[in-house]
Amino acid sequence: MKLSEVRKKYLDFFEKRGHKIVPAASLLPENDPTTLFTGSGMQPMVPFLLGQPHPLGKRISDSQTCFRSQDIDEVGDNRHTTFFEMLGNWSLGDYFKKEQIEWMFEFLTKEIGLDPEKLFVTVFCGNESLGIQRDSESVEFWKKAFLGAGIDAVDVDFSERDGLQNGRIFYYDEEKNWWSRSGVPDNMPVGEPGGPDSEMFWDFGEELKLHENSQFKNQPCHVNCDCGRFLEIGNNVFMQYKKTETGFETLPNKNVDFGGGLERITAASNNTPDIFLIDVLEPMRLKLEELSKRRYNSTTNNNEVFLGDTRAFRVIMDHIRAVVFLIADGVTPSNKDQGYFARRLIRRAVRFGKKIGIQKTFCSEIGQIVVQTYNAQYPHLEKQQKTVLEKLLDEENKFLKTLIKGEYEFEKFFSEHGKISGQDAFVLYTTYGFPLELTEEMALEKGQVIDKKIFAEESSHHQELSRAGSAEKFAGGLADHSEKTVKLHTATHMLNQALRTVLGDHVFQRGSNITHERLRFDFSHPERLTDEQIKQVESIVNENIKKNLLVHFEILNLDEAKKRGAIGVFEDKYASLGDKIKVYFIGDSFSKEVCGGPHVSNTSELGSFKILKEESVGSGIRRIKASLI
User: Fold this and answer.
1) Burial (0-12, 13-18, 19+ Cβ within 10 Å), 99
2) Is 587 helix (H, G, I), strand (E, B) or coil?
3) What single string gives the DSSP state of each residue in 461-507?
4) Which of 112, 238, 314, 408 is most exposed, with the fewest beta carbons within 10 Å of its own?
């Protein structure tokens, strides 16, 4: 089965059951400065899971593009990717466990055709100290579903210790079967929603576990093992709690938040444990074979020592696919924020391209294949194709120069010290962008081994400083809905409109970050603003603040919103959406913008607007930092 078929079957299935289909949100979260990327399907849904009414109703479904930067180093095995699509359906205070479990079993076994004998599930074992009970309710619904397929589903405890025990439903603790954006209950901040979940696994067969080279062959077999036999394909989160100062309280509405890996379900439908063999990745794989004159050798076991070529192919396919979507959503490769990860992905892809013998620039060529493969579902890729391919080529050429510089500095360190220390390797990595793996390879050629422990210590210290800086940077954003932040959010809309008035309608938002102290606004514009233009923008905002304009929202359909002149951050992604969206108006005609809120009720609350800085953050993208005084 093709990935596009699985996606369509899923959306059709839930549309028939009263769900409104919404388009994928951007990979750059809007109005959520707590994270750099959209890393899960539920992320854009948090306000509605907390109780805000969704304009389309209580049943929502989508296929959401996601990017998880924390998985970069995991890529190379047969299942991990940084970019993926997450199938999602939500019940916002409507149906709950019974309907969700029945529908998921029906979808997987009837629509996708998965053999129920090879499906296994997990549930939450409960936590008395939290006052949260064992999820016996879900177990009974799963047993009934399996019994309908002629299977007596046994539920068991302690499978990590005792193995499968002929079970089909397994209890795990909050490390495995509790879901929130922050992980386990102890890590959840006050106000964060979460709840027990019930995950679904596909069994590729015990021969993977028993493979003679598997490090897991003598360990108890259970579905959450990393041996490669079982693949998690979906997670039913029963979002019914909110963290409070004193513990957990039940949300006003019991919600369902399902997330299913589209690539993983497609792999299961083809019974291939290697997700890099599914159809959407094949054109990239074939082009890489042509360019490298090597073959992609898929392993049958997740834990064999991967052939170098296999890992390299996987890294390149994942990273270029991810970067194409990131750039199309407004990311410019750089050394900061989202741009840092785009740059890192491209550089890793180039390095692995060299490892498999590719002698020419290739990233834009692979990027064009990604655009062609996904354009039917995501037409914005073709609209941004020129920009995407130019940035891929530019970054690849820059990194090739970095490699030359890094090799020069490596030789310099070696001649001065007679060796390359762990500290030297870290300096080469952080200062010159020279990958540790290349440093190791070159050191090995000179008969020495890099002290990776020292490198790791330096890296850990660097990451602690970075995390501290990131936490401070994003501490006071829209997630807290503080008064100052809400004011600056409204001012951001006014800034957007003022820029369009002064510079032209080519100006569109390309990212924002708002703290209680200042706003940061990225927008499309090819050149530096003059001092006069900056004064004009400031003046327009301040003049409209003084007009005491009312701020309100209306729920409109897309056509009506466009007729009334509303703009959206990523407007093309609303294409073909005939249902309702929220549009905020500042005054009768000054600013009209698609947005989820929150805002002040009158511009008189804002005070005086001041632009602090205007700068470039990449080709065709400018950034303004401003505050209210």
Assistant:
1) middle
2) coil
3) HHHHHHHHHHHHHTTTSGGG--HHHHHHHHHHHHHHHHHHHHH-TT-
4) 408
Segment holding 317, helix H or strand E: helix 308-328
The CATH number of the structural domain formed by 3-269 is: 3.30.930.10
Q: Output the CA–CA distances (angstroms, integers) from residue 582 to 11, 293, 514, 553, 557, in the order listed.
A: 23, 52, 20, 7, 9
User: What's this model's pTM, rounded to 2 decimal places?
Assistant: 0.73
SS (H, E, C) 325-373: HHHHCCCCCCCCHHHHHHHHHHHHHHHHHHHCCCCCCCHHHHHHHHHHH
Residue-by-residue DSSP string for 87-144: EEEEEESS--HHHHHHHHHHIIIIIS---GGGEEEEEE--BGGGTB---HHHHHHHHH
**pLDDT, tens digit, 9 for 90 and up, residues 423-453:** 888 888 877 778 787 788 788 888 899 988 8
Contact 421/440 with Cβ under 8 angstroms?
no
Give how far the C-alpha of residue 50 lies from the chain's centroid of Cα atoms, to the nearest Å. 21
- The amino acid present at 523, given as its one-letter code, is F
Residue pair 197/177 in contact (Cβ under 8 Å)? The answer is yes
Q: How would CATH label the architecture of 478-628?
A: 2-Layer Sandwich (3.30)
Output the six-digit token pair for 439.
């440093």
pLDDT per residue as tens digits for the range 7-54: 999 999 999 999 999 999 899 887 666 678 888 877 788 788 777 889
- Tell how far CA 70 is from the center of its chain: 10
- At 193 the three-state DSSP class reads strand
Residue carrying the six token digits 């394909």: 233
Q: How far does Cα 146 stand from its chain's mean position?
A: 33
Q: What does the domain layout of the chain look like in residue ranges?
A: 3-269, 278-418, 478-628
